[in-house]
TrEMBL record:
Belongs to the glutathione peroxidase family. InterPro entries: Glutathione_peroxidase, GPX_CS, PH_domain, Thioredoxin-like_sf, Thioredoxin_domain. Residues 1-25 form the PH domain. CDD domains: GSH_Peroxidase (cd00340). Residues 33-199 form the Thioredoxin domain. Pfam families: GSHPx (PF00255). Transmembrane segments: none annotated. This is Glutathione peroxidase. The active site is at C74. It comes from the Eukaryota.
């Protein structure tokens, strides 16, 4: 993965890029298209849990997956965590999995350690799985998000604009729909029900 610009530091680069994105500019990351095209489904990907254990997404085969980049200090946090948990509790037995991917790339709003993150989310009584904190944009982006944002580009291109961007994946491991940070989880409950009905 390469990028089309550089800055004096990663933090400055992200600050600069976010200011342009917020002003309405479009941005496209440059991926190795051939590598991304070789991935046939979400299940071929891997990530690491909070304990550093490798987790294959094939663990969620046959499930409807909602993958979300999360943060603790975002203004969207108090609405997203409760609604994500509500959906998880309501549809888990029918095959919904909510996967949380902490990221500190957006205004430094996930600065804590893994332990601090898990302590913070206790107030929301969340029970869905969390993965280790990692980037979702740029050269160090986690493969799960590189794949999802390439398959489901947003209005700003192959880029995650902000915390709580959500990706819905069907029971066959195919990316289905992307939802913007301000799209509340309960607002697309019907999409989840549609995918759950596809046995």
């Amino acid at each position: 993965i390469t990028e089309i610009f550089a800055a004096e530091s990663k933090e400055k680069q992200e600050e600069w890029l976010n200011s342009f994105i917020n002003a309405g500019a479009q941005y496209r990351e440059v991926f190795n298209v051939e590598d991304t095209a070789k991935i046939k489904s979400f299940y071929e990907l891997k990530d690491f849990d909070m304990a550093g254990n490798e987790v294959s997404m094939s663990k969620y085969k046959g499930k409807v997956v909602l993958a979300v980049n999360v943060s603790s200090k975002c203004g969207l946090t108090p609405t997203n965590y409760p609604e994500l948990q509500q959906l998880y509790e309501k549809y888990k037995d029918e095959g919904l999995e909510v996967l949380a991917f902490p990221c500190n790339q957006f205004a430094g709003q996930e600065p804590g350690t893994h332990e601090e993150i898990m302590e913070f989310v206790k107030q929301y009584n969340v029970t869905f799985p969390f993965f280790e904190k990692h980037d979702v944009n740029g050269a160090t982006a986690r493969p799960v998000f590189t794949y999802l944002k390439t398959k489901l580009p947003g209005s700003f291109g192959d880029f995650v604009k902000w915390n709580f961007t959500k990706f819905l994946v069907d029971r066959n491991g195919q990316p289905y729909k992307r939802f913007a940070p301000k799209d509340r989880p309960l607002s697309f409950e019907e999409d989840i029900k549609t995918l759950l009905a596809q046995k």
